[in-house]
Each structure stands twice: as structure tokens, then as C-alpha cells.
Automatic annotation (TrEMBL):
Domain of life: Eukaryota
Name of this chain's protein: ArfGAP with dual PH domains 1
Species, as recorded: Junco hyemalis
UniProt keyword terms in alphabetical order: Cytoplasm, GTPase activation, Metal-binding, Repeat, Zinc, Zinc-finger
Subcellular location: Cytoplasm
Residue ranges occupied by any PH domain in the UniProt entry: 130-231, 253-357
GO function terms (MF aspect): GTPase activator activity; phosphatidylinositol bisphosphate binding; phosphatidylinositol-3,4,5-trisphosphate binding; zinc ion binding
Amino acid sequence: MAKERSRKALVELLQRPGNAACADCAAPDPDWASHSLGIFICLSCSGIHRSIPQVSKVKSVRLDEWDDAQVEFMASNGNNVAKAKYESKMPPFYYKPTYLDCQLLREQWIRAKYERKEFIHSEKQEPYSAGYREGFLWKRGRDNGQFLSRKFVLSEREGALKYFNKNDAKEPKAIMKIEHLNATFQPAKIGNPHGLQITYLKDNSTRNIFVYHEDGKEIVDWFNAIRAARFHYLQVAFPGASDSDLVPKLSRNYLKEGYMEKTGPKQTEGFKKRWFTMDDRRLMYFKDPLDAFARGEVFIGSKENSYKVLEGLPPSTQGNHWQHGITIVTPDRKFLFACETEDDQLEWINTFQKVISRPMLPQEYAVEAHFKHKP
């Protein structure tokens, strides 16, 4: 009887504002709770909480036994109270992961909040908020695919992230301007749970580097340091903009990635299988997912500027092995692609539709003009 009463009380608490989504990743309908922190969490986050038992004690809302004191503690706390406490000094640039993000980001977010209390004590944010950071990361070699230790330096003052091929090298191997920098976690693609893909523009073409660090906190600190540097750069570049305007621009995950077949501009040569990445309005294609340089890039504008996506290929098309075609119409030419499955085709079409239905920003016209004048 007491068990049923406790369960009913906890289920009622889940209806309160803030408790209907996981306190850490915002997954809907959390079914677990930390009775030492007073929060409701999802199954996936509960596993991370179990790894820090000195901080968090976890129980199932519906399956475990609860005593009255524990239920009372949950009632007097809850997700909104915990957020006000544990996220009170969270800097706007710090990446707050959701249930769609990789395990590493979610684990380090939970540890930063409750174990290290980084957002209660600002001085603990030094590793990513100082404006300068240097250290060693394992970087994938462009030609042989081996990961080698390389020195990286991020300097907000210089507006750049640099890396050096030798520890004592005077000149960096690459200078990546903060203005054009992006970082996104790609554990599956890189084959390492801490794998980070960093991209930058060189001569208006995209360059990729793939890095990791054995220590999860270290690589997430690098990621947030890059976001902090971009935040401060954008604050200067757009002095009137609010934090909520700038934060979505700090780093971006790709809209979609995967294999398609493509043919060339004359559309007479055979279709070749390529790895495609949709990054904002740039559709890039690579021979291999871990290539440093794209083989080519296609700019995808908006429907107001005569861009559209069509299901299928022109009737005369030949040379495609995969049967599920997509045609992208731009003001200059048509691009033909083929997908292996109908599901792939629908996902790519939906992705392209979202991009095309979004009006172009003033700065995107300059990017489009560069693509039109590409040799």
C-alpha cells in the first residue's frame, strides 16, 4: 500500500512544470530520478548518474521502493529548482546537449553540473573561458589516416586556432580563423567516442581535420573553448545582437550526412558513389567520409531565388546504379543524385526542402556569388 502511494505521488510530481522532460537532456517522459539531487531523468542519463554515485543516487520512479522522506525531498526540489541552482552561472556559449547528442557530451555536461559544479563556481570555467588554450590532440593524418600527437593553440586575441606539426616548430601547419571555424562531435565517423571534426574555410573551400583526446573532459573543454572564442568574435562583429541571436551561430551539427551517387555537369558520365555532407547551405561531397578536402561543393539557396528540389531524375538519365533519384535545380544548372533506398531519398529531399524554404541572409548572397564565379 505504501509503495503504491509513493509511486502515485511521484507520478503526480512528473506533471509539475519542468519535470515532464529529463533534467539533463530534455528527453520527454523521464522515468527515473536522482533522489539525492531531487531531479527526474531519462534512462540514458540515469546510467551516467550511476557512474557518479558519490553525487547522485538513482531510482526508478515506477519500479523501485521509495520511503516518505525521499518522496518529500523530490517534492521540495524538482527539475526547475535544480536548474536554478546547478546552472545559475552557466556561460551562454557553453553547449547544452540534448538526447540527440553523443554520449560524451551528455556525460561531461552532467559531470560539469553536479560533480565539478562548474556553473555554481565561475572560476572552474577557466579551461574554456580564458580566451587562450594550448595542448596536444591526436590528429588524423591527411594521407595515411594515422592519428599523431599535434600541438594546438587557440588564441582569441589572434582570432585563430593553429596547429603545429612539430613541438618546436616556429610556423604553424594551419591557421584556422575563428570567424570561419566549426566543431562537431563525430564519434561514429571518426571511430573514437571522443572524436571531434573541426572545419574551416580556406580560399572559400571547406577543410576538415579530425581530432580526439583520451580524456573526455579535455576534448569537451576544447569544444567549448572554440564556442567561447566564436561567441566573443560575434559579439564584436554584431554589437547589437542578443545572446539568443548569437548562440545558434557558435557551432552547428550537420543537417544530414550519408552516401549518394552523383554524375558530372554534362550528365553523360557514369554516376559515382560519394559521401555527402549538408552543412548549412553547402552541400559537399567527398570520396571518403574522412577526407580533408571536399571533391566539390554545391550552394543551395532559397526558393525565392529559383532553387528547388525534385523527386526523381530526368527520363533520359543513364548510369545510375541506385534507383531513387533526386534533382536539385539551381539558377545555373541541375544536379542529379541517386539514393540507395527510398527512405534515404525521402530524408535527403526533406533536408533540401528545409534549406530551400529558408529565406537567404544578406551574407549568404556573397557566398552564392563566389560559387557562381568558381573556376
